[in-house]
């Protein structure tokens, strides 16, 4: 007989263990969401406080200088102005809380708008804005912080399986949310340009490419070198924590394209698919660099077709001309300088 062993000693039964686990699970199911809600609310209150400070300092800057900071100086890094340094410090704090800091615009030297949105689902569910702009005064007074509930963007109207998409690197530009990407097709649209500038640029870029692709596809179908129903696509690579911002931008882009008689469709791709369907070596290198740089990349192939196909060169030129004047200059400035020049609105 083993020393110390007693038949009278009993452990927990399987039933008792299962009941205990069930109780723990029930308590966790109730407590954890409540804790996450409290943490989110606290995070948003801190962001709101930082936004209030920014609004106060913006007004002091205008009082001292007679104008608000230019868009191309935002977020005012490297400044020696005391008020601007306070703004920069608060922007850094907002960024650390998982909120965006790039939604700043100045339509005139005497007006500005700045909003901050949750960059992740866990950061918050409200968007905060401060301003000195007559257009926004109808919503809330200058000096106050506006709270706007954030609802998830429904991208389902534009989701496809991508079966008929052919990734084309010769005409479509690749979009990477990385200003330092070495690839010559990389652009810093998503987080360097202001949201309204990014939407305008993306809409016109996709529209121009769609016109050219549609006409090119029709010619190749006519001469038997292209299968009808297949369409060229572009590739967009972002990180998963940028997805909410991406959806906000692209939902606006897709709606504008639809108003122009176009049909945008996007398909999500896996990293393995993207790297095995990436065109020539230099494009694969660019895609690989972007995908490997993100621990959880989001990869989309996007195509845009037309309700009414391009019939002839004159038709193509007429539609192509509908995109706004000076597009090429603007595209160069944004893709090479990271910000829109003065004419951008």
Q: If you had to describe this structure to a student in words, what would you say it looks like?
A:
The chain is α+β, with helices and mostly antiparallel strands and 345 residues long. It has 2 domains: 22-149, no CATH class; 156-337, no CATH class. It is 46% helix and 16% strand. The chain has 10 helices and 9 strands. It has helices at residues 14-65, 82-96, 134-137, 189-192, 195-222, 243-259, 271-276, 281-292, 313-320, 327-337, and strands at 103-108, 111-116, 126-132, 146-149, 165-167, 175-176, 231-239, 262-269, 297-306. Strands 5, 6, 7, 8 and 9 form a 5-stranded mixed β-sheet that branches. It has a 4-stranded antiparallel β-sheet with strand order 1-2-3-4. Helix 5 crosses helix 6. The longest helix is centred in the N-terminal third of the chain and has 52 residues, at 14-65. The radius of gyration is 26 Å and the shape is flat.
Structural topology:
Blueprint: H1 14-65, H2 82-96, E1 103-108, E2 111-116, E3 126-132, H3 134-137, E4 146-149, E5 165-167, E6 175-176, H4 189-192, H5 195-222, E7 231-239, H6 243-259, E8 262-269, H7 271-276, H8 281-292, E9 297-306, H9 313-320, H10 327-337
Parallel strand pairs: 5-7, 6-7
Antiparallel strand pairs: 1-2, 2-3, 3-4, 7-9, 8-9
